[in-house]
Structures are given as structure tokens and as C-alpha cells.
Amino acid sequence: MNRPTAHTTTRETGPPASETYRQTVQRLSSAQKSAARGAPAYSIYVNRRVGRYLAAGAYRLGLTPNMVTAVSAVFTFAGIALLAVGQPSWVLGISVWLLLALGYAFDSADGQVARLRGGGSASGEWLDHVVDSVKISTLHLAVLVTAFTHFSLSSPVWLLVPIGFTVVAAVSFFAMILNDLLKAKHGSGAAPTGHSTVWRALLGAPTDYGLLCFAFVLLGAPWLFFLVYALLFVANLGYLVLALIKWFRDMNALGSVPARSAAEDS
User: Fold this and answer.
1) C-alpha span between 48 and 53 (Å, rounded)
2) Domain 21-253 classified CATH 3.40.50.720?
3) What residues form the membrane-spanning segments (predicted)?
4) What pLDDT sits at residue 5?
5) How do the domains of the chain map onto residue ranges?
6) What is the pLDDT of residue 214?
7) Are 72 and 107 in contact (CB under 8 A)?
8) What percent of the chain has pLDDT over 90?
9) Which phi and psi angles does 193 have, rounded to 5°?
10) Which of 74, 118, 169, 214 could cross-link with 136 by S-S, CB 3.0 to 4.6 Å?
11) Separation in Å, CA 224 to CA 119, 198, 213, 232, 234
12) Radius of gyration of the chain measured on its C-alpha atoms
């Protein structure tokens, strides 16, 4: 999701004339960022690799990172719209999954295109995060719409599941962004990165957006989909509670915040 923002004086607009597609992929692979510790398995082992191939192709076509972000948004929001208005079926579920998965892969590709071109920009990172913030909320609201319209739920109380998932997703995203901002502001740098072990990646699987996307295949059996979706909600809620405790301790370790000015209080 994140696009690099390092300043550079040289920007590439396309590959060297003698560079093949395979060489572009290899060059991108060698410049790949380390995965964040605890990053989920699908994001590391599937989505990043697919995004690499898409990024190499987009780069060779001369697409900018913002163009790739736009492509990601088209696939993602097409899938969300289809989920909200379509009649639940196996065909609908597979279509929603493919659209969301492609959107996620292009979401990974935009930052990789930026690296190939010599670095990203603040506006590009801003656009990427704005698209992500809209995506994570509207996806669960689309589930709410289709559950209310098409599912035979035993009680309206079950509609609280997609509502709660919307809150969990929004809070998780905002808290992670705020973590990085506050750590940078108080001199501790960005969130720690490093080699994500297989064990850490598997532990984070319930929070993996790729797994959530795949769950929509089950729309052909609405009761089974909603059961899996509810279990993912519970897992994400539990993960968020534990993460918030840890993140609060991390923020507390940064020390005191300088006194705010009168203008900031107004």
C-alpha cells in the first residue's frame, strides 16, 4: 500500500531500450522492500509477487504510479459495486473475488512502479492512502447491503457484523497510519521492518485482505459465506484489541508530547 517517498533528482519514465521484461522483473525483485514484521502470508507470498509482474508491465507501458493506483481503484470499486447490487451466486462470488484480488495486486504494483521510476511522491502516497481508506470501509458496507437485501438472517442483530467490521477496518487503518506519523514526529523512525517469518505470516492470516477477498467466492452459499465472514470479523476484532494495547505502549515509550499551541487547541 505504501509508496516510497524518498527524494531523488533522477526519474525514469521507462525502461532502458535494451532491457527485457524479464530483466525489469529481476531489477524490481532485487530492489524489493523487506516485508513488515507480521505481514500476512497472502500479502507476502502471493500479492507482492503478482504485483511485481504487473508493475514491470505497467512500467514498460510508461504508466505512472498514480495511473496504476487508478487501475487498482477501478477493479476494486467495480468489485464492491457488484457485491452491493448483485444477486448472490457462485458466479457473482468468483467475479467479486477476482475484481478485488486484481485491485489488491495493482495496489501493490503502484509502489513498485514508483521504485522502478526512481522514487515516489507525497501526492502519490496521499492518493494511495485515500483510495485504501475508501476501500476498506465501503467493502464492508457493501456486505451490509447485500446481507440486508438477500440473506435470510435469523435476526437483524446479525447486521451488526458488517457494521462492526467497518469500524474495525477503519480504526486499524487509521491507527497504523498514525503510528508511523507519530514515530516519525518523535524521532523513532517508521514502523519496524524486517524479515517476516512464516510463523508470523500465518498468525496474521485472519487479518489478510487477500483472505477476505477469497471469502467472497462463498457467496454461492450465503449462510456459509456469512459464517466465514463473521469468524473473520471476530478474529480481526481480537487482533485489533491486542494491537491497540501494544501500539499504546509503543506511543507511551516515545515520551511526552510538546505542549500544544493555542492555535492547535482552537
Assistant:
1) 9
2) no
3) 58-84, 90-109, 157-178, 198-217, 223-245
4) 40
5) 21-253
6) 95
7) yes
8) 54
9) -125, 165
10) 169
11) 44, 28, 15, 12, 16
12) 20
